Amino acid sequence: QKEVEQNSGPLSVPEGAIASLNCTYSDRGSQSFFWYRQYSGKSPELIMFIYSNGDKEDGRFTAQLNKASQYVSLLIRDSQPSDSATYLCFLWGSSASKIIFGSGTRLSIRP
Amino acid sequence: DVKVTQSSRYLVKRTGEKVFLECVQDMDHENMFWYRQDPGLGLRLIYFSYDVKMKEKGDIPEGYSVSREKKERFSLILESASTNQTSMYLCASSYGGGGYEQYFGPGTRLTVT
Asked: CA angle, corner B110, sides to A100 and B4, nearest 5?
């Protein structure tokens, strides 16, 4: 089992709909969780981070964390074509060696 | 604005050459990272440094070494480049500890022939 798992996609969502991206992880000691967005040919940039169980909202983005079930998700409301990118889940685990990115989910917003 | 710069955007080297990739950040960040990114594999951590002269191995340190003599600079060294090290290399930095955003450089596309 990979330490951080994401569905590679592509995930195709119509413009204006909600895009739901999921990430599961195996290290129960993980403390902090991040979502990065990466456009083709560009470097990753931070979308959101979450440390506590529950939901965290920032504009059109909501991060959800459930440590008991070991998953973190990102919801994008009112999806726009500019949201088309690869979304990378990242976590800081229980030790310095547990610095892990998922392999990313490619999201495509269709007009 | 945080700035992370990498010495080259594109690099072509021959098998067996010693290769140096340089990364410089201007935000006085304690942590610096080297990743490689390959299609379908995401970003994989090669090495992590949390202070000057301090380093931790990541998932794939074999064939690589690092150097951090100054806080702002983190170098990745390929001792003897091989074709399976052809990849995109990304450097990042962040404040110390485990809960801070990483800022990425533009990446170096290395081709080993």
From this structure: 60
